[in-house]
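Quick one, tokens below:
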């Protein structure tokens, strides 16, 4: 049957707009509630909007840098918000990055985070009520679901506006949205929505009727002082209770399933007894088919971009891993990062209790390219991915792994990793590498970052050195920031623009990798000699063994 809604009191309807806040322009029938403000987005400030990366480029960077794992962790359980697309839109300026960083700093406060989580939960209930109501066949039941969803909505908006106080939020994004909410709460449209829904709810709470069964006749009549047995029935069955429910609130379909044919007949007769209040209920449902303000709806979705990422990295922070808001620049290409690590790998390993090895790097003055060499399986590729992840996440305005991170703001991050050969591809592996590198140079700008991993490893040493030298010279000529993983020590000594980084082994055991990548002169021969000595393959030992 139609559930009784009871008497509700929505949260205070509000305070007046601030001097620099929203202006209220009443517009009857406007789904936006008649409110126009300068607030547009909690993700994108007034700066130039970001440009979505091409699908092919985005697929390559997600795959090669394992950003797909990071995005999966940050969007897990949030499919309804459709957040993945936000990770493909790098921010165009330092101002846009700082806009997001300030919002995230506010959201790291417990009170603000709790308020946003409560708001998100209420908005999910609004959508659940709307979805369930749309499936019901009885018009009065549908109308009641609309009434319930407006209560959830008005209460959620009021509570969030009340929670975003000056001592809790300092960011332009959240203060702007708070000012919009205050203007919206004071608008005629919102006051009408809250007031009419409260009035109808109070009227429904006063509806009292009895269902009388006399032999084979069932009648529905107004109560005439008959005794209410509900309290007595509840007291009788109290001893059979299994304990209070502590889980989440049941879904609407579990609370109020669709009326059956008997309940429908009873409800129809109740309507005949109290026609005015039910007419008002039906009119309310028709009038407020759309009642969620577009700015509120957009905030509800966009703020989950922040919430999801903070939630994903929280376990790593709690375990002691460093995260920081990077200092980004559109002009300087001096870079530094301390104790940074591959975030995708860290998220994957934490489930098994393992940890990643942090590393440092720096680019100063004319230095632009980190040339990483050393033994296989020593962490070179992981280091390259880390470098690419840092620049990509920083350009999204997100906290990055590490401490004291300073980066050039990237407009693109171009990875170049080995691809599997396909029988239908007639170009060959080397040709495919050359074509992909040429495409990178065609699309790269002075603000792009390039990540090359084991390029030209399938060709001869001489060809690999010659091609690698040409590529690095072009990177330096274009003044790009890059990391280049190679098995050729010589590439690290091309001039002041390159920095040699080496993946190291344990001092007492050359076969054991430390996964530390340090700034030092590359000398692959020293590593080869250490391995040869360990396994008795040095020149002296070999001569001893073959000596007659």
């Amino acid at each position: 049957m139609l559930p009784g809604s009871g008497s509700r009191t929505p949260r205070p309807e509000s305070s007046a707009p601030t001097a620099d806040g929203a202006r209220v322009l009443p517009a009857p029938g406007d789904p936006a509630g008649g409110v126009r403000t300068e607030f547009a987005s909690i993700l994108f400030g007034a700066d130039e909007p970001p440009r979505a990366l091409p699908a092919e480029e985005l697929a390559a960077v997600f795959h090669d840098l394992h950003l797909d794992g990071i995005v999966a962790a940050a969007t897990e359980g949030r499919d309804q918000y459709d957040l993945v697309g936000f990770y493909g839109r790098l921010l165009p300026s330092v101002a846009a990055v700082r806009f997001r960083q300030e919002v995230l700093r506010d959201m790291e406060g417990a009170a603000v985070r709790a308020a946003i989580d409560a708001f998100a939960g209420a908005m999910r209930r609004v959508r659940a009520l709307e979805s369930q109501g749309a499936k019901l066949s009885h018009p009065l039941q549908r109308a009641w679901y609309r009434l319930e969803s407006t209560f959830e909505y008005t209460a959620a908006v009021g509570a969030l506006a009340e929670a975003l106080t000056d001592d809790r939020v300092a960011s332009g994004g959240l203060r702007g949205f708070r000012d919009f909410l205050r203007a919206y709460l004071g608008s005629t449209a919102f006051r009408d929505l809250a007031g009419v829904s409260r009035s109808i709810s109070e009227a429904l709470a006063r509806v009292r009727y009895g269902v009388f069964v006399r032999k084979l006749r069932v009648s529905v009549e107004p109560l005439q002082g008959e005794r209410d047995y509900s309290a007595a029935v509840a007291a009788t069955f109290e001893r059979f209770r299994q304990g209070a429910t502590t889980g989440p609130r049941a879904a609407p379909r579990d609370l109020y399933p669709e009326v059956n044919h008997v309940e429908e007949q009873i409800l129809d007769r109740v309507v005949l007894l109290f026609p005015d209040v039910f007419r008002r209920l039906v009119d309310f449902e028709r009038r407020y088919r759309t009642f969620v303000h577009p700015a509120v709806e957009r905030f509800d979705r966009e703020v989950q971009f922040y919430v999801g990422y903070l939630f994903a990295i929280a376990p790593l922070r709690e375990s002691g891993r460093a995260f920081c808001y990077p200092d980004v620049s559109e002009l300087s290409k001096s870079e530094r990062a301390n104790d940074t690590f591959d975030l995708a790998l860290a998220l994957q390993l934490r489930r098994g209790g393992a940890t990643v090895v942090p590393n440092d790097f720096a680019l100063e003055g004319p230095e632009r390219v980190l040339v990483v060499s050393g033994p296989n399986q020593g962490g070179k590729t992981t280091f390259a991915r880390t470098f690419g992840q840092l620049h990509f996440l920083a350009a999204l305005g997100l906290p990055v792994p590490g401490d004291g991170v300073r980066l050039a703001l990237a407009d693109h991050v171009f990875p170049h990793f080995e691809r599997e050969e396909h029988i239908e591809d007639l170009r060959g592996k080397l040709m495919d590498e050359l074509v992909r590198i040429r495409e990178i140079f065609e699309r790269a700008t002075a603000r792009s970052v390039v990540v090359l991993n084991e390029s030209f490893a399938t060709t001869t040493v001489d060809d690999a050195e010659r091609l690698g030298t040409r590529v690095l010279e072009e990177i330096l000529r274009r003044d790009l920031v890059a990391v280049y993983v190679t098995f050729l020590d010589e590439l690290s000594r091309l001039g002041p623009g390159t920095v040699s980084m080496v993946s190291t082994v344990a001092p007492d055991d050359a076969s054991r990798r430390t996964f530390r990548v340090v700034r030092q002169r590359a000398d692959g021969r020293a590593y080869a000699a250490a391995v040869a000595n360990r396994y008795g393959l040095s020149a002296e030992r070999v001569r001893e063994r073959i000596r007659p």
